[in-house]
Prior knowledge:
alpha+beta
Amino acid sequence: MKAESKGSEELDRLLGQRWLSGLWRVGREERPLDPKTTVKPHLWKWADIYDSLVQARSRIDIRSGSVERRVIRLVNPGLKETELTSHTMSLAFQLIQPGEVAPAHRHTMAAIRFILQGKGAYTNVEGQKMVMEDGDLILTPQWTWHEHAHEGDQEMIWIDGLDVPFVQSLQVISFEPYKDKRLPAKSSSDAAPPYGMTRPVREPSAAAPPPLHYRWRDAYPGLKRLSEANPNPFEGAAMEYVNPLTGGSTLPTLSCWIQMLRPGMRTQIHRHTSTSIYHVFRGSGTTVINGEPLHWEKGDTFIVPLWHWHAHANRSAQDEAILFSMHDAPILKAFGLYREESRGDSPPGL
Ligand code: GTQ
Ligand code: FE2
């Protein structure tokens, strides 16, 4: 409660005129015991996303140059004014047609792309051309030049995940279009190999570029093996895409995971101060968030806001469920703000 006495009102007014404020004006609601978020749990259905992309395909023309990307963003029902997906991350779907070029630019926001369907498109990041295949993860670290182009014959769709709201909250957004029509690609012999753990031996002054491309064909066998071995009670079999040069998270602000729930698997309920956005790559299941079930199937995307109790279940008795996800946990961990709690049971309804 704010102090209401006449003496303090006068003092508050006086302090206000001096661009000062007494800490007694801060109420209980601004100092909650538990973290409070305006981000709401939500499920976006694939049928709605796909239909929206198809409608945008014919109406949004990226050849004319007035629009640079054919992208549809997920809007959190708790963040209608800003049209953000969460308070730290934004997630979107991008569609590109054969022959199209999404022109080069760079920005202080970092981006990840998880490829959903199609063949023949590539992303050029700083001259390194990466051909996209379903299930691949491709990184665009902050302030790197990037262009997408499509040389194949089927439309391509992928997920874009960015740390836009976080970078916005720090007021450090910079965005620069590339000076030329096309971003030159290095010949494959000049390019650093984007896959795996080897790299060219360099002169001492030359910094090694981080890996940018994690292929499904490399990620899946490890995931499968983990799921047969030792699932984590809260996550099932979950693998984080790491930066092998640092041993750290996928990007400084974002951690990406690929996760398998075996048929019939139910995870235990927990909550943490990081926010997670999940995309259903395969299978179907249910996630209970603060007691409310969200039923998901292939192509759906859902968000678990921070400090919400949640647990996942694979509804099928035969098929594996695979979730791709993006988390803002690296931000919280970097500043000592990551906290996690478990209740050790599964919620009713799972
Ligand atoms: O493809 O470069 O969804 O710059 C948002 C901003 C995609 C991109 C987004 C971007 C891009
Ligand atoms: Fe971009």
